[in-house]
Amino acid sequence: MNAAGPHSIRSLRVLIVDDEPDFRAILVKRLRKRNLEAIPAAGGREALNRLTEEPFDAVVLDLNMPGMCGMETLREIKKAAPSVEVIILTGVAELELAVKGMELGAFDYLLKPADVDELLYKIEDASKRKQGKEEAKALPKKASNPDRT
């Protein structure tokens, strides 16, 4: 099965954070057509509220937003949900910020306008990394708590 096969991403939940309503709506629609559960958020505060209420496999985050900027949102996401991977969407003029975002824990970045298939692969890879982190975190607990009766 290829990475973008219908069964490989069916259950993935991704939060799309962008202040541009048209861009956000189009991206959500395109990802939903590819069997992702894409949930829109208009900004950083809304994204953080959703992350505390619902589980997500990945976040696609715009950097240039009014109010809570993308970098601040990234920092707060990593505090609130450290295992959730963040993919930054950025314009060419913000490339240095995207690199800084990687240093702050972002999984990867893409330049706008992003190719949806490329974004899809990054979302799937981010989800796999999140799952690996969660499994690794659970292992020491299992090893230190053997079943004793």
Brief descriptors of the model:
single chain; 48% helix; alpha/beta; five-stranded parallel beta sheet; 149 residues; 5 helices
Q: Uncertain spans, ≥5 residues at pLDDT below 50?
A: 1-10
Number of strands: 5
Rounded mean pLDDT score: 86
**Amount of helix:** 40-55%
Biggest β-sheet: count, sense, barrel? 5 strands, parallel
Numbering strands along the chain, what is their spatial order in the largest sheet? 2-1-3-4-5
The helix count comes to 5
Overall morphology: globular
Distance N terminus to C terminus?
43 Å
Derived from helix and strand composition plus strand pairing, the structural class reads: alpha/beta
**What fraction of the residues are assigned to beta strands by DSSP?**
15-25%
Assembly type of the chains comes to single chain
Explain this structure to me?
The protein has a five-stranded parallel β-sheet with strand order 2-1-3-4-5, with helices on both faces. With about 150 residues, it is of the alpha/beta class. Mean pLDDT is about 85; it is low at about 1-10. About 50% of the residues lie in helices and about 15% in strands. Helix 2 runs parallel beside helix 3.
